[in-house]
Amino acid sequence: MDIMQNIPTGEAAKRARGMAGCGSSCRLLRKRDRGLACRTFGTWASFAPEATTILEVWQIPMPAVTPLSLDEVTQSAEDPFATLNALLNEYNTGHVGLAKHVPIWLFARDASGKVQGGLRGQTYWSWCSIDVLTVAGAYRRQGIGSRLLAKAEEIARARGCVGIRLDTVSFQAPDFYRRHGYVEFGRIEGYPPGHTRLWFMKRF
Predict the structure, then answer these.
(1) 53 and 113 in one domain?
(2) What's the angle, vertex CA 177, arms to CA 198 and CA 117, rounded to 5?
């Protein structure tokens, strides 16, 4: 059945919207999930193959789902990061394959072995993401940050990455990244209040 031939228009569309309970603001061809009346046309036939017209599809009830409870995770025995990422990765894998997250940890130590700087990042989907790059105050302006960044780029290239992305704040190191060839591709003013968050990238 060509379901597109049964799309109501004019007064029929208005009556259909009323039957669906989604109001006059509903647009029939928009891909919005407001319930049955606004399902993407390509999916209607799959969940309601017995329907012969759009109006019949609208009147077929959605399957009931178990209600969810929301709670703030504070239990130390539960890893919320791993739990949520497992759900997301299951969906992503169907579109882009296994992500293969591989971490990058770099430490800059003084003569006693104490960590005075470092970098944390990861590689996946052919890109490197730098999450943290920091150097203790006494060791800044001595090229430590540049060495850490260069080493991360070297590792990323060796892993087959095509570039690096990262974010910083206006009072941190935006000019540092610009000097190393990174290009700003996004920003949010007032985040944090009184400052700007910036996103940078560099293609190899």
Answers:
(1) no
(2) 105
The encoded tokens of residue 133 equal: 């790059």
pLDDT(106) > 70: yes
Distance CA 148, CA 168 (A): 16
In whole angstroms, give the CA distance from residue 199 to residue 56: 48
User: Would the pTM of this model clear 0.70, i.e. be above it?
Assistant: no
For residue 53, the enclosing domain spans 3-58
Average pLDDT rounded to a whole number, residues 148-155: 96
Pairing of strands 127-135, 163-169: parallel
- 155/153 Cα distance (integer angstroms): 5
Beta strands of the chain (E only): which ranges?
A: 102-109, 115-124, 127-135, 163-169, 183-189, 196-203
Residue 77 within a domain: no
Q: Is 148 exposed, middle or buried (0-12, 13-18, 19+ CB in 10 A)?
A: buried
Distance from C-alpha of 58 to C-alpha of 34, rounded to nearest angstrom: 12
The answer to whether residues 195 and 109 belong to one domain is yes
Give dist(CA 156, CA 42) in Å, integer: 40
